[in-house]
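$ ./design --mode recover --in tokens.txt
reading tokens...
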């Protein structure tokens, strides 16, 4: 009898690609996602003194903005370099109530009911076992505790990422194309996933904001520097072939958006839920 090989692991669910882009991701996204982080915090509605867990915190955009409003922030990420960047922001902002640890969000090393709230800004939606990650968030918040996670809207609504991916697929037609929106790109699916785990008061909220770029060159530079998938594509194609693909993608973007300044919509889904008081 032959053993059945396990399915291939998505490299984006491993820390390596995120460590590789952590510094440039931080430089691009720490400020760019600030308004989105604020929207997630408002939906979470933390109270002074709350203990809040930030899952897959990246360089700490949300943690740093949340810290002045709560008692303690525990920020975790499985990528060591992301945690290093986060700690740098914490030190520069002098935030003694933020603690950062290297940890997998699907295996939280915390006791049950350790936090008043938990949040994940573009983290849990990428987990290879999303239900496990969300159930861990359920487990570690107190009964009545609040949870928020974010995911990107479909590419036709979220041009901030969609424009780059469309141009990349035009330049590299053999690049795999998703068959319709991913589960986390549908608000009703996001809500259903929380409800199936026992969350109550579940609701979704759409975040939308235009992001302005001085030129296609500025956009493509940010898109490349913040993208772990493009880091993997560069490794797969090799430097010369990737440079050619990137040039063709940039040309496709200029055909669509022109040579001057332009705006792209940033659209994301925020999903909220509460652990029932009856879970005590």
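writing sequence...
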């Amino acid at each position: 009898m032959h053993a059945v090989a396990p399915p291939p692991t998505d490299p984006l669910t491993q820390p390596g690609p995120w460590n590789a882009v952590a510094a440039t991701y931080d430089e691009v996204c720490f400020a760019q996602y600030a308004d989105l982080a604020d929207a997630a915090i408002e939906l979470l509605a933390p109270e002074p003194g709350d203990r809040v867990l930030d899952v897959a915190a990246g360089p700490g955009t949300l943690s740093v903005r949340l810290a002045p409003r709560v008692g303690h922030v525990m920020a975790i990420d499985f990528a060591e370099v992301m945690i290093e960047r986060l700690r740098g922001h914490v030190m520069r902002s002098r935030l003694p109530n933020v603690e950062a640890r290297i940890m997998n969000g699907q295996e939280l090393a915390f006791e049950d009911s350790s936090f008043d709230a938990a949040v994940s800004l573009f983290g849990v939606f990428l987990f290879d076992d999303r239900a496990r990650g969300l159930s861990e968030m359920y487990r570690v918040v107190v009964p009545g505790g609040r949870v928020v996670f974010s995911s990107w809207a479909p590419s036709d609504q979220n041009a901030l990422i969609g424009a780059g991916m469309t141009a990349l697929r035009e330049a590299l037609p053999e690049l795999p194309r998703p068959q319709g929106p991913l589960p986390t790109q549908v608000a009703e699916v996001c809500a259903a996933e929380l409800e199936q785990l026992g969350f109550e008061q579940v609701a979704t909220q759409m975040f939308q904001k235009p992001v302005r770029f001085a030129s296609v060159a500025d956009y493509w530079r940010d898109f490349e520097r913040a993208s772990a998938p493009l880091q993997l594509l560069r490794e797969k194609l090799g430097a010369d072939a990737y440079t050619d693909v990137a040039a063709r993608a940039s040309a496709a973007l200029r055909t669509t958006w022109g040579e001057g300044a332009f705006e792209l919509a940033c659209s994301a889904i925020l999903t909220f839920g509460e652990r029932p008081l009856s879970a005590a």
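exit 0
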